[in-house]
Amino acid sequence: EFRRVLFRSQKCFNINRKLDTRDSRNKIVIAIYTLDDCVSIVFETENELSDWLDQLLTLQQGKAGNLDGKRPVPNYEHMWNVTVKAFTPEENNFTQVEHLKGPQRLCVTPSSVKFFPVGSDHCVEFPHACLRCCAHNDRHFKLETGRNSPSGSGALLIDCDHPEVSQYLHQTMVKAMANRSEERRVGKECR
Questions:
Q1: Torsions phi, psi of 187, nearest 5?
Q2: Global pTM?
Q3: Dihedral (CA of 54, 27, 75, 69) sign
Q4: What counts of helices (H) and strands (E) characterise the chain?
């Protein structure tokens, strides 16, 4: 099914390379996220993808995204459409997290995990320091939170579109949390 989509690049929520997709056997895909939808563009070659991604990001960010001749970068390099199914709080945690349930855009940054409800540009941010661990099984992803997180201690149960998405999300989370932990360790040694 082909859908015609018109968008203004400056109004895009995010534009990035999509590495965990079933849209293409070669996985040469760009994802364009608006507040309400995601459109994937499949390319035949890496060079074609790179050229298009640079052009789209330059259009989205204007000249500010291309300072000093550097390539523009996405607002969020790692982003997924997920559905938060439930939050299981630990004993003595009475924090209400109903606003986290439902369709979300999950973004992993070097310092945190952000949940943007589909249709909104406001997020709930979980710093890596407030996360205990994560796991995946088939299409399901589990994120354990600590008591200082916005949800308090417990576990977020998340559904992904495909097992490959869940696996890639898990790999990205583990890497980001390990990098953040190493940065904090090195920072303490330098004091």
A1: -60, -40
A2: 0.83
A3: negative
A4: 2, 10
